[in-house]
Design goal:
The protein has 535 residues and is an alpha+beta fold. The chain has 10 helices and 33 strands. The strands form 8 sheets. It has an 8-stranded mixed sheet with strand order 20-19-17-16-13-15-14-21. An 8-stranded mixed sheet has the order 30-29-27-26-23-25-24-31.
Length: 535
């Protein structure tokens, strides 16, 4: 049984229990009781996001204990550095359906809750021969220790979680390449004037049946976002973000724990690479020493005495095969097939549509009547013998028919859900296909069926699909003079101030029926002096 701690209580039965400055009963150690290891992982994931674990890692214990009633459980013993820290740990543990205790080994009493704001004290201590005793409301419960789980082993054994959206990172990006691709990646960065450094690292063997392997790590300070899919699609190449100077996590993944808060759990010497794609952790002994790739460029030697006596002959198509080689072997060595493969993830929108079906062309003509006026002007179209190409770099969402294309390079369009295998750069594709300026290259079914369309052939959509109207020119004629029936005499006479006097005007009789005759109205002169002859 437990007794509630009273206000300003100073004496306790549980060893190691004392009252802090707030009057809360707290022991030298805190103990969290969980039923599964998943709850422990959830606790560290939430607790490491708020504060660093470096101050509790030296004395932290993850104990596998077996009780006499409920079987195997996980006990997390940590130093109680004040009631504030233990309150936060208790809140997270109770959310995960765990229980919290405090005290000193082997006696631990239940930590404070809403029913006892100042904590609990044991009513009577039990005799303990080995293991731990936890005092709860139901009574004391003894646990026998069966082993411990190291924090380092827990960190390295967890599977990385896939991120739904990669957060914006201002730090450098690291490219891990095997030895066979080191020169190709280095030359690729050279040609695009990307500032980078390279280091040679050796992965330690993880077991008796494993062996150490060498790989190269490129450090790129400013990496263009459009190059990320190119490197991620290259077999054997992985991109990493640095969580610390010696901790690297693959791009697109995150560790369940905040690795920045667990520095003391891993050795300071060496580096760890957490790969989410391979679900593995590689350890590298020693520090990575990066060398600028600009210093690794080959420089031509001008002194003939320092050059080799025999220079290798360049192997070309149709040339003479070297000794021991057949013509077929030379052709296979120089042939580099490139295919279009289906991508698993599609993020880019379509900027062109290719239509080669007469039925879909009929649908397109009907669709024109539903398109807004802006679409008829912004959408460009070219009608060729291969098919119909509709282009709008702002997006072709208003045309839901045909094959959707994306612009992989400038004026180079491939199916939206496809990508090159192996990945090609713009310069390689330009040299291979002989791309010309002013032409749009379309690859609906691969490089073998690629065709080009001149940009001058692209016209507004309305010009192709709207019916043509022939306008006939109207002929103008001169107006004929009007013939007068009789001569008209124009008289210019001064009528004076009262020109309407003496005219017979008609006055409407409002009392007569509608439409009835009207009575004549005599003009009435204005008031004034009488004239001669008036009565």
């Amino acid at each position: 049984m437990l007794d509630r701690v009273a206000v300003q209580q100073e004496r306790f039965r549980t060893p190691g229990l004392r009252a802090d400055g707030r009057g809360i009963a707290i022991g030298e150690r805190g103990l969290l009781r969980f039923g599964t290891l998943t709850q422990v992982v959830g606790f560290f994931r939430a607790f490491s996001e708020e504060q660093s674990l470096d101050h509790i890692l030296p004395t932290l214990r993850i104990i596998k204990a077996r009780s006499q009633i409920q079987g195997l459980e996980i006990l997390l013993e940590l130093p109680s550095q004040g009631s504030h820290m233990l309150d936060r740990a208790a809140a997270i543990a109770r959310l995960l359906r765990g229980s919290v205790f405090t005290g000193r080994a082997p006696h631990f009493v239940r930590y404070r809750d809403q029913e006892a704001p100042f904590g609990y004290d044991a009513a009577r201590l039990s005799t303990v021969s080995e293991g731990l005793v936890l005092y709860d409301q139901a009574g004391p419960l003894q646990f026998k220790e069966e082993g411990e789980i190291s924090m380092k082993g827990l960190l390295l054994s967890l599977t990385l979680m896939r991120l739904r959206r990669e957060p914006l990172s201002s730090g450098p990006l690291f490219i891990r390449t095997p030895p066979g691709l080191r020169n190709a990646v280095q030359r690729f960065l050279w040609e695009r004037r990307i500032v980078a450094g390279v280091a040679e690292l050796v992965r330690e063997a993880s077991g008796r049946f494993d062996q150490a392997t060498t790989f190269y790590l490129f450090r790129v300070e400013q990496f263009s976002a459009r190059l990320i899919p190119l490197f991620e699609g290259l077999p054997g190449v992985e991109l990493y973000h640095a969580r610390r100077s010696n901790l690297f996590v693959q791009r697109g993944y995150e560790h369940p724990f905040a690795l920045e808060s667990c520095r003391k759990a891993l050795e300071e010497d060496g580096a760890y690479f957490f790969s989410g794609h391979r679900d593995a952790v590689d350890r590298v002994a020693g520090d990575a020493i990066f060398v600028d790739i600009e210093h690794l460029k080959a420089i031509d030697v001008q002194d003939p005495s320092l050059k080799p006596e025999h220079e290798a002959q360049i192997l070309t198509r149709g040339g003479r095969a070297p000794q021991g080689w057949s013509a077929q072997q030379v052709s296979e060595a120089l042939h580099y097939p490139v295919h279009l493969i289906h991508r698993q993830t599609i993020t880019e929108g379509a900027s062109a549509v290719f239509i080669n079906s007469p039925q879909e062309m009929g649908w397109l003509k009907r669709l024109v009547y539903a398109l807004p006026e802006t679409a008829l002007e912004s959408y460009k179209m070219a009608l060729t013998d291969k098919g119909c190409l509709i282009l709008n770099r702002q997006g072709v969402e208003l045309v839901p028919i045909g094959m959707q294309l994306r612009e992989v390079f400038t004026n180079v369009f491939i199916p939206r859900e496809a990508s090159f295998s192996p990945p090609l750069g713009h310069e390689q594709l330009k040299q291979h296909l002989g791309l010309r300026d002013g032409f749009v290259v379309v690859m609906p079914q691969g490089l073998s069926r690629a065709f080009e369309v001149a940009e001058t052939a692209l016209h507004p959509l309305a010009r192709y699909l709207l019916a043509e109207v022939d306008l006939s020119a109207a002929q103008t004629r001169a107006a004929a003079p009007m013939a007068m029936a009789e001569a008209v005499e124009l008289v210019n006479r001064d009528l004076g101030y009262f020109a309407l006097w003496g005219h017979n005007l008609r006055k409407v009789d409002l009392k007569s029926e509608v439409g009835g005759p009207t009575q004549p109205m005599k003009a009435v002169p204005p008031p004034g002096p009488p004239r001669d002859g008036d009565a």
